[in-house]
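Render this sequence as a predicted structure.
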Amino acid sequence: MTCVPESAKAALKATADALSAPGKGFLASDESAGPWLRAGHVDAKKIPDTPEMRAAYRSMLYTAPGLSQYISGVILHQETLFQNDAKGKPMVDLITGNGMLAGIKLDKGYDKSGLPGTATGPLGHAETWCKGIDDLEARAKAAYEKGARFAKWRNVLQIDPASGIPSDLAIEMCVQNLAQYAAICQRAGLCPIVEPEIVPNGNHAIEVCAAITEKVLVKQFDALKLHGVYLEGAVLKPNMVKNGLTGPKAPPEVVAAMTVQTLRRTVPSAMPGIFFLSGETALDEDNEETATVNLNAMHAPGMPALPWSLSFSFGKALQKTCIVTWMGKEENNAAAQQALLNRSKANYEAVMGTYKAGSCASIGVDGNVKMAGGAY
């Protein structure tokens, strides 16, 4: 039994279905600061982080010719949703005019002081959850009026088996918080992206991540049902099942098999789409290529048929080469747009199971540095 009126279901389902169009994914463009600060590249960090520079970069992204062949939706930060480009045109209009849907990140991040009494995890702080529920109704309505048609809310869970992390308390807080957000968004007309992310920081094996991801997703869908969320009008954004950053490295075929197994055990077929975040990678890994290869392996011949679109919602893993190509210079716009198109097409091909490893040029691991700001 859902809490969504029958009159609202059709529009929510239409949005979720459009976002889950075959092969297409999300451009996660919801960084609070310039995405070059989170690209994890020594040169990218040199780009000045100002509202004008962020607007110049993002307007360049959103107007890439033909981007809607591969991208169904663009997730925006609050600043960008209400921002104009240098010519005074609203960013939302750039996105919709280029054939994509605009979405909004609605969580307000987390307080690292976290849940009282919980242990400190690999991120260096206690277990936590994201804030923003208190005024979410008003912000969701304002976003819809501005032209957003979907929303995102991300909660972070850590893994440290020795410390009992994630605790049952942290998991319960995570899934209930996300379910409450999803119900409020649907009431405002926004299709919610539900994002319980289990970060890869730590030295655990992939089997540990699989078990915890399964546990979290079972509880997440119980919570969504409890809150009356209409699954046909929502989508999921989980982590891939992977080893810890310093744990025994699992090859793409194992990542794919364990991720798909976990999802088939936990995600109802009523949900139209699942969109992976790429997740942080080790400094000796190419984040863009790794994410694409993992996604392609999930659609390789012999993998089981899936009841939902299984696609991508990447930020750095779509933008890193694009950013290093751009470097804040307008004369590099066309080349940067081509880099974005190339990687978006690569991930479209991965969803179709036809990506050839190494066929999309990337900046690779040269210049890799630790991502600024940690996991959020």
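Summary. The beta strands are 25-29, 71-76, 101-105, 150-157, 191-198, 235-236, 273-276, 309-314. The domain at 6-351 is CATH 3.20.20.70 (TIM Barrel).
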